[in-house]
Amino acid sequence: MNARVLDGEIINSRLDDVRAYDGVRTRRILACIVDYVIIGLLTIPFAILVFLLGVLTLGLGWLLYGILVPAVAILYIWNTLGSARQATTGMRVMGIRLERLDGKPLDAPTAVIHSVLFWAGNVILTPLILLVTLFSDRKRTLHDLLLGTVVVRDDL
C-alpha cells in the first residue's frame, strides 16, 4: 500500500484511485452468491456431525441445528475475510477485497462484525443496503460506512 500522512491524516493513494471502484457493486453481489454457496456446502459435513451428536445424546445435540449455519458462516468469515488476504473466497474469485480507510490491516473481529452487520441489514433493510451504494462515495454500503471500510478491486 502506498500510504502517506498529510496534515495528520493518512492518505492512501490506492484507495483514492477511482479505478479501484469500477464494477465493485456487481462484483460484491456475485461474490456474496459464491460465498453463500460455499457456506451451504460447508454446512453439510457439520450437519452430519450434529446429527451423529444428536443420536449419541438422545436428541439433545440436535439443538445445535438452530445455530449451525450462522456458526459455520462466522467461522468462514473469520478464516477468510479476517485473514491477510482480506477477502472471502467469493471476493477473491471476483477480484475484490475489503480494506480499512485508515490503512490498517483488517482484523478477524472487524471482519465478523462487518458480516454480522451485513446480515442484520439484509434482514431489516434489504433495499436500503444497495441503495446506499448509489449515493455514497466509493460505492460503500451502510455497514461499510459504519465500520470505516471499503471494498476495492484487487487487480490494481
UniProtKB/TrEMBL annotation:
Protein localization: Cell membrane
InterPro entries: Pra-immunoreactive (IPR051791), RDD (IPR010432)
Keyword GTP-binding: no
Keyword Membrane (UniProt): yes
Major localization listed first in the record, in broad terms: membrane
Keywords recorded for this protein, A-Z: Cell membrane, Membrane, Transmembrane, Transmembrane helix
GO cellular component: plasma membrane
Membrane topology, record value: Multi-pass membrane protein
Occurrences of domain RDD (ranges): 26-147
Transmembrane segments: 29-56, 62-81, 116-136
Protein's UniProt name: RDD domain-containing protein
Lineage, broadest ranks: Bacteria, Pseudomonadati, Pseudomonadota, Alphaproteobacteria, Hyphomicrobiales
